[in-house]
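Record minuted for completeness.

…
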Amino acid sequence: MHYLSVWASIIRQARQIFNSLSTRLHHLLLTIQHDYDLSCGAELPPTNWQPSTQTMDTGESYFRRQEEEGEYRFNLSRGMGTQAMNFLDKYHPSVVNHDSPDRIPWIKIARENPPQINHYSPIQTPWDKIAREDPPQITLSTFAETGRAESTVPVLMQRSYTGKRVVSSALADTLARIDFGIKLGGTLYTIDSAVISVLNSYIVQNLDFGIAYAFLRPYWNQIDTIEYKLRAQEKKDREMRRSVLVDGRITTRHVPARRVWDLYANRVIPYWVACEHPWGISHAWVDEKDRVNVMTPINGYEWPVPIPKDTNLDLIRIEMLNLGVKYAWLDVLCLRQEGGKGEHLRLEEWKLDVPTIGSVFEMAGNVSDRCWFRRAWTLQEITQNPIIGGKTGDDIMEEGVRRRFDEQLTSLREMRQRNMALTLVSEMQHRVSTKPLDKVAGLAYLLQTDSIPIYDAEQSAADAWEVLMDAMGPRFRTPLLFYYHEPGDGRKRWRPSWEQVMTNKIMVPSLTFFLGWVNRTDDPDADCYTGYHIESANVQGLSEVQTEPTPRQGELVLKDATEAPRTLKIVA
């Protein structure tokens, strides 16, 4: 009887452990599914949301525990967890193994330091309430944000914004504290002990609430694993940016911006925190006398932000929020500028960040303002559905501006879609830039090269152009051979130098037709042409030795299809 009671006790404990594991796994799968939905832009669950198998993929699920090489493995059936695995694969590639014999993904939970499983329990912390309750409406007014009366702001959409999950600049600037609490719309949520450990990392660094809010807001429904998740995403982003730089070239066009502007928190944060493509704000530069360098908490006072004297970043934020934007990208705010405390990092970051600016505008709408069509960088900032910012309410004037804008933009869009090197180069002749090198960099993304040359601030525009032409595809190089008749004065005679490209006026053909390809060879100093050719002709006048290093001039004599002689002047 004694042994029977012992065995009964063991069985009872085993059953409790099994039930506990089942419940924890069930909550884990629900959490993964819910997190994936949120990452795809789904709304937060309503107040009365409860775990249900209806929120997951259809199909039966099962799990098994086995011990291999010091790891616990949970197997997900084919009919369940597809979205969950996609989410894990995106944010936690190190814990997903796709190489199992039956092709079923495995979640591998390391025994040494597994992340805590987040539970959706009836007893919720105040932090849970913020994540799940319908948040209150917040109003950002011009007066509260900048001290200016609304009537003095000419742009209507910059006067005020009312929405959810945004914080005022004053709240964002407040230092994070354990006893601070979160006050949104008059409702005070005290910080529960469950999040103290997470907040402490921001507090010890003396960071403000805006940064803490920007980092934690996307993940606060999974507060137990947030530190693990952010570390994993930061590592993945760092490895990606390092791997795309090979031998002075960028191996892919699709490199996300290094930083984005979180408009809800009014803070510039790393892309790996947001993991969302931002809206690009395309703008025009003004003369140096008309702009001012602003040190702002929005970018953590990392570098002075050069903006026009009549511009205010807080007003731009209000306008963007009214346009429905959550994350934005503004070059002077998100791209490291000169003169900051991290100046030693700027040149290294620019090697990757400047040539890939076009990726910000390739996938999203942009907001443009005046004096836009003469800036070199904006040539790669053309999008299909732009929104003109700065509307003042003067419908008659704005209609005229819109009409002229649409006409010029349509022309530029058609030019870009044709992807003609001659057209792009011709357009760049009329644009201005602070540095000549920036014009070359502005063309690099548009020419859709197999790899993009890095931005080297020490490089001359002429040298950068030579590197860019080496990276161009064959069909972009061919027009440079046929339409520039004079020998180039750069490294290769068959193609024009940067000075020739920027000074010579070329008649761009209205119709495109096949010209062939100028391909690269194994010899870096030689290229070859594949296309139409002349079978027989006589060359005259090139045998004479020149006493000066000037191009030789001669004639090419041939017969056309009617056997009539033709003479063409040639230079070599």
